[in-house]
Specification:
alpha+beta, 60s Ribosomal Protein L30, Chain: A, 6-stranded mixed sheet
């Protein structure tokens, strides 16, 4: 199986030794994205704005690979506090329609922002 990295300027550049995404046919594995614009600036502090930016970043990387989050199979959401779950879930339901991807949501010790997400997406054929 061949693997191909995906990069785009439509999402923040990686802050470490990883790719924004990796294609391994027929899947795209999207690395975690935080609530930062393409220049790396943190967006509005509201959880809703942060969730929207996280998924906009994931969408930008998916588009660079020739697919879309509408083909997401699995999403992982990482929250600084599970108190944000309901607000995150409301925005998530706006972004993803039925059948929604499988999802795991966990609380973690992210610092400086409130949400991060990653995904596995089926490539368009």
């Amino acid at each position: 199986m061949s693997m191909r990295p995906i990069t785009t300027t439509g999402a923040p550049a990686p802050s470490g030794g990883y790719s924004q995404g990796i294609v391994a046919e027929p899947f795209l594995f999207l690395s975690g994205q935080g609530p930062f614009d393409e220049a790396g600036k943190l967006v509005d502090s509201s959880i809703e704005a942060q969730v929207r930016q996280v998924f906009a970043n994931l969408q930008a990387v998916a588009e660079a690979a020739g697919t879309s989050l509408t083909r997401a199979l699995r999403v992982g959401v990482y929250l600084s506090d599970l108190e944000h779950f309901d607000a995150m879930d409301r925005v998530y339901r706006e972004i993803f329609s039925e059948p929604r991807p499988a999802r795991t949501t966990i609380q973690t010790n992210i610092a400086g922002f409130d949400v991060e997400a990653d995904a596995v997406v089926l490539l368009d054929r």
